[in-house]
Structures are given as structure tokens and as C-alpha cells.
Amino acid sequence: MTIERRATGLPTRAPNRAFDTQEFWDALAAGRWVVPHCDACGGFFWYPRRVCPLCGAWDRVSYPDASGRGTIYSFTILRKGQGPFRDQAPYVLAYVELDEGPRLMTNVVAPDVEALRVGQAVHVILDPAGDGGDAVYRFAAD
Fold first, then answer.
1. What structural domains does the chain harbor?
2. pLDDT tens digits, residue range 73-86?
3. Residue 60 in contact with residue 50, Cβ under 8 Å?
4. Mean predicted confidence (pLDDT) in 110-114
5. How far apart are CA 123 and CA 116, in angstroms?
6. DSSP characters for 90-133?
7. Of these four, 53, 89, 105, 138, which has the most CB atoms within 10 Å of its CB?
8. What is the SS3 assignment for 71?
9. Which pLDDT tens digit goes with each residue over 38-50?
10. Is the separation of the CB atoms in 109 and 125 below 8 Å?
């Protein structure tokens, strides 16, 4: 699956690659959407880390390619931003339920944020961040 790279205009900064998240951020920089998977219990989970929160397995986490699709579980439209988001309003903060199961918090971008609905299909996009080809994930309405 090729993931669209799109500058959304929302503030971004290069991700902080930590021991637990290095593999995830490297996959995004390479244009791959991955979701942490426990090879011990078979569950997908969110957020990226080395220990499975479902069964407690240590170092049995892999990062398989994922669908990049999901639905809006809940969202809010922010009409007044602060800090680097001061001039970005209105923008959307949402929980997206991935097709693989986990829910994650993200921004959803859409031409008309007023038309977004709970249950609406979305797909992952990569928003360029930093100078080295890094990206952060966001979701776009279908």
C-alpha cells in the first residue's frame, strides 16, 4: 500500500525516536503504515512499545504492514487553537478506530470539517515533518 504524503498545514515536528518507538517511526519515514502486533497473543494494540499491553509479552512485538484504514470513533472540532495551533482553527482532533482494532488519537483532515461524522471512513496520510524525510501520521476523510 502506498501512503499519500500530504502537507496538511497543521504544525508538525520531527518525531522523537525512542528505543520503544524507533521501528514505528522508521516505517513511517519509509512510507509504510504499521500497527504494533504481539506475536505471542496475536493482538494488535496502540501505541508503539516493546511490551504487549494485552498479555505482557516482552520483545514479542512486530510491526506488520497494516491497512491504513479506519473509522471515526469520536471527534471534536477545535475552533480556537493555542501555541503552534493558534492560526490553524478550525481543526479536528479525533479517535480513529483502525480496521485492525485499536483506537488512536489523531487529527482528521477534510475539506469541510463540519461534514465529518462518527463512523465515517478515513485513511492514513503522512504529513512531512523535519528535514530528514520524517513524517507524522494523520487521517483524511474518504
1. 16-66 (no CATH), 67-142 (2.40.50.840)
2. 999 999 998 888 88
3. no
4. 94
5. 13
6. SEEEEEEEETTS-EEEEEEE-S-GGG--TT-EEEEEEEE-SSSS
7. 138
8. strand
9. 999 999 999 999 9
10. yes
